[in-house]
User: Fold this.
Amino acid sequence: MNNVQNIVSDLGGVLLTDDDTGLVSKSTLTRKLLGVNQHDLESGWEKAWPDLKIGKISEEEFMRLFIGGVGKEPTEKLIKNLKEIWRKNVTDLPFLNQIKKLKGKYNLYLLTNIGNEWLAFKRTKFKLDDYFAGIVSSAQEGIAKPDPKIYSILINRFNINPGESLYVDDLERNIVAAEAFGFRTILFESLKDATTRLHVLNVEE
Assistant:
């Protein structure tokens, strides 16, 4: 029997490309622009991302830390170019269209680790507010998944019963945190697997 009333999804890596796409994971342009290797990019990301995702720094400050973290001078031109690269590489993934079709039958929510400016860009580009009844982000709350506090914020803000809810994420640590609250979960690994799991749970259009 299906008693799922709510579907909560991660954003990057599930519905849209990951935030490091373009800057790190698909980084040919970034490596060429900065003249560094893949290891350098990953190191720069790790220095800058933790503070961006909990709202301690702005996108501008992130870019300065990221560029400085790879050993380069964060000029205004480099910052501008990297912002453009990031935006050009943000694309939707096939699962987004599948989730959109569930609007009306289920209450849809987002729980995502993301910087403020990046979320604002995605909300506008992909019209997320047309489909999702609520969005809880790490930067707005100052807390990131898998900290249990951010799941509690989601549950309390939107009066969600985890026992009537499904949570989808591509990171196992976030899935484990959701399961501790009683969510049914899907560890997103591919569109095919996620679709199969939805059918098993009788979550359909």
Notes: Residues 28-88 form one domain. Residues 38-53 form the longest helix (16 residues). Residues 15 and 95 are 6 Å apart (CA to CA).
